[in-house]
Amino acid sequence: MNTLKDKTIVLIGATGGIGQAVVSKLAKHGANLALGGRNQSALDSLADSARAAGAGTVSAQALDVIDEASVASFYKSVSDSFGHADILLYLPGMSIAAPVTDMDLSDYDQIVDVNLKGLFLSAKYYLPITQPERDPMLTFVSSQAASRANPNAPVYCAAKAAAAMLGQGLGLQAMSKNVRVTNFKPGPVDTDGFWGDRPVPREKFMQASDVAEVIEFVFSLPTHVVMHEVSFESFTFLKK
Predict the structure, then answer these.
(1) Which UniProt keywords apply (predicted)?
(2) What percent of the chain has pLDDT over 70?
(3) Does 231 reside within a domain?
(4) Rounded to whole angstroms, how far apart are CA atoms 93 and 86?
(5) Bridge partners, residue 90, by sequence
(6) To which H or E segment does residue 33 belong?
(7) Of the candidates 143, 161, 67, 155, the residue with the CA atom closest to the CA atom of residue 105
(8) Which are the contacts of 10, defined by CB distance < 8 A and separation ≥ 6?
(9) Model confidence pTM above 0.70
(10) What angle, 0 to 180 degrees and rounded to 10, lies between the N-to-C axes of helices 17-27 and 208-219?
(11) Cα radius of gyration rounded to whole Å, the chain
(12) Domain span at residue 140?
């Protein structure tokens, strides 16, 4: 297995439920972490926890994932602090459950921007600070909804499907820089920030820690192995 000690790992959306679980896993490997999210105080607290858990160097900077200047500033900070980045994990995702006839255009824009534009911008500024000899990885979290539509959030399904296709194209482009691309496609995960007060059977969903274990496993694979797409979900939920 590939060791993650001293790897520089960029986590965008680090303070979300899945992000926090992944940070906890990676810190125990002694990885260097560059944490990005919306709230600086939450990032600072998470960075302190990561250091206490055994992480190497940890940086934390707030950013707006759909603002190019903000994303560029974040990655400049990563480059200045670490000199390079080995792994990117793009986590942000949002959904608004509504009939298309009731959805404002601003809601549509926000869903598409967070799920697709944010990944595009993060990839754009991550790739130039990779080093081919360090076997870099570009990874992101899409969803089972990328390939299995539902009637509750069709715009979200479309945005995640587009992100999945962007990832496939990035995998082909980035191959020349020795970058492996992985799309994580989990089923429903019990996180507060995503579901809010929607009446869904969260007791049947996966936990954030389940997703973190899958991500940790893929990050630790031998560097000659690439997982293009990892689809997984709660067996309890699947059985209904």
Answers:
(1) Oxidoreductase
(2) 98
(3) yes
(4) 22
(5) 12, 140
(6) strand 32-37
(7) 155
(8) 34, 36, 75, 78, 85, 87, 88, 89, 126
(9) yes
(10) 50
(11) 17
(12) 8-239
Q: Is residue 116 part of a domain?
A: yes
92 pLDDT above the threshold of 70: yes
DSSP single-letter state for residue 145: G
CATH number at residue 225: 3.40.50.720
Q: At what angle do helices 105-112 and 154-174 cross, to 10 degrees?
A: 30
Q: How high is the mean pLDDT of the chain? A: 95
The β-bridge partners of 12 are 36, 90
Contact 163, 229 (CB under 8 A): no
Sheet holding 8-12, edge to edge: 58-62, 32-37, 8-12, 87-90, 137-141, 180-186, 229-232
- What's 148's DSSP letter? S
Tell me the CA distances in angstroms from 15 to 40, 166, 175, one per residue in order. 10, 24, 30
Structure tokens at 115: 């799920």
Please choose, from the candidates 217, 225, 236, the residue with its C-alpha nearest in 3D space to the C-alpha of residue 135: 225
Q: Is residue 2 part of a domain?
A: no
Number of domain units in the chain? 1
169 located within any domain: yes
Instruction: Give the mean pLDDT of 28-53.
Output: 98
